Amino acid sequence: MAEEITSQSTNDKRPPGAAPLWQPGVSGNPGGRPSTAALRAALRPHEAKVLETLIALLGAANESVRLGAVKEFFDRLYGKCEAMKDPPAWLTDEKIVEMLS
Fold it and tell me: What is the 3-state secondary structure (H, E, C) of the chain?
């Protein structure tokens, strides 16, 4: 007799053959992503203090702290960068090494 092969995930703790957690075609998260409106409202009064702290960190003695502050500053000001899917033809590995030297 051939053994039945199941496509159950190795992280699934349910016994083999158990019913799925939800029916096919039905969302496992029907309410969607939780709202952050309440959290944003609670943090808004501290906005000026956080900005002052971030600006102060731009002048930190530790280079890692300064770099982190610059990254956060630009991420907040312009949004996070998208991954480069198609780098320009001129940007070769050799050119990157040359630029970093």
Answer: CCCCCCCCCCCCCCCCCCCCCCCCCCCCCCCCCCCCHHHHHHHHHHHHHHHHHHHHHCCCCCHHHHHHHHHHHHHHHHCCCCCCCCCCCCCCHHHHHHHHC
pLDDT of residue 67 exceeding 70: yes
What's the CA gap between 30 and 23, in Å, rounded? 12
| Max mean pLDDT range (12-16, 35-39, 59-63, 93-97) | 59-63
CB distance 6 to 16 below 8 Å: yes
In whole angstroms, give the CA distance from residue 69 to residue 59.
Answer: 9
Domain ranges of the chain: 47-80
Contact 55, 64 (CB under 8 A): no
